[in-house]
């Protein structure tokens, strides 16, 4: 049995569809319910819906053998997991954004609001820029508007949240896509099962590229 942690939401549903097409279906997952765990014994899979930012915790600690999460989460928390495959979906980027026309003259400590504290710290350390981190949990775009911060470090997908709040991208930090990750011990003991699944999914992803 392979235990798979999926990120709850649109991305997770897309990922499940891909796994289903790869031969790892579990029809009960599509029934309308509030259940979070679904199993197909015959196919040897058990799926869990978890909060996207928690997928790597389940996988790192072995509650799930594999899972799918964004590169942003891997960069922020550096979980001890294997990254097996770029799923080429859930594509967005981590970027610095500010109010239109903002210019950093470098004279003062830069106030940076973000959910991605480690990524922001690393990024500015590498630029030797002094910053004051303000850790927020969501709606980060409000911070520069209300003067809570000078800039934000956040995810930009379509760019419409920034646009609708009169903000703009200053710089892209790194591109993001969903990654298939595996627990290290599971990969050792279920190598064949996990590798088979990865191969099937990889095949479908390359078909998509054609
Ligand atoms: C993310 C991100 C931005 C938005 C970007 O927020 O934090 O707010 O998506 O998408 P866009 O460029 O397509 O507008 P999310 O919906 O995850 O909620 P959050 O406010 O909790 O971060």
Strand content: 25-35%
Our count of helices gives 8
- Report low-confidence residues grouped into runs of 5 or more: none
Using only C-alpha atoms, the radius of gyration works out to 19 Å
Order of helices and strands: EHEEHEHEEEHEHEHEEHH
State the distance separating the first and last CA atoms: 32 Å
Structural class estimated from helices and strands: alpha/beta
| Ions, cofactors and other bound molecules | 1-O-pyrophosphono-5-O-phosphono-alpha-D-ribofuranose
Largest sheet: 6 strands, mixed
Number of strands: 11
Helicity range of the residues? 25-40%
Q: Main sheet: which strands, in order across?
A: 2-3-1-4-11-5
Shape label? elongated
Q: How confident is the prediction overall: mean pLDDT?
A: 96
Mind explaining what this structure looks like?
There is one protein chain. By secondary structure, this protein is of the alpha/beta class. It is 33% helix and 32% strand. The protein is built from eight helices and eleven strands. It has helices at residues 10-21, 55-60, 71-77, 117-126, 142-145, 160-164, 184-189, 191-209; strands spanning 2-7, 37-40, 45-50, 66-70, 81-86, 92-99, 110-114, 131-135, 151-156, 167-176, 178-183. The strands form two sheets. A six-stranded mixed beta sheet has the order 2-3-1-4-11-5. Strand 2 (37-40) and strand 3 (45-50) form a beta hairpin. The mean pLDDT is 96. Bound molecules: 1-O-pyrophosphono-5-O-phosphono-alpha-D-ribofuranose.
């Amino acid at each position: 049995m392979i235990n798979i942690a999926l990120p709850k939401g649109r991305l997770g549903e897309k990922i499940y569809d891909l796994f289903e097409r790869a031969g790892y279906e579990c029809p009960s997952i599509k029934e309308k319910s509030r259940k979070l765990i679904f199993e197909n014994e015959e196919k040897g899979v058990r799926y869990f819906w978890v909060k996207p930012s928690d997928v790597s915790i389940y996988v790192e600690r072995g509650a799930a053998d594999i899972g799918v999460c964004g590169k942003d989460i891997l960069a922020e928390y550096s979980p001890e997991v294997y990254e097996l495959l770029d799923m080429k979906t859930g594509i967005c980027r981590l970027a610095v954004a500010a109010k239109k026309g903002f210019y950093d003259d470098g004279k003062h400590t830069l106030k940076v609001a973000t959910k991605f504290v480690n990524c922001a710290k690393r990024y500015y350390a590498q630029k030797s820029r002094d910053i004051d981190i303000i850790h927020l949990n969501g709606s980060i775009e409000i911070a520069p508007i209300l003067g809570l911060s000078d800039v934000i470090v956040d995810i930009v997908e379509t760019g419409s949240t920034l646009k609708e709040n009169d903000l703009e991208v200053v710089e892209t930090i790194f591109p993001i896509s969903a990654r298939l990750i595996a627990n290290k011990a599971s990969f050792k003991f279920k190598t064949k099962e996990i590798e088979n699944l990865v191969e099937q999914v990889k095949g479908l992803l390359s078909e998509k590229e054609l």
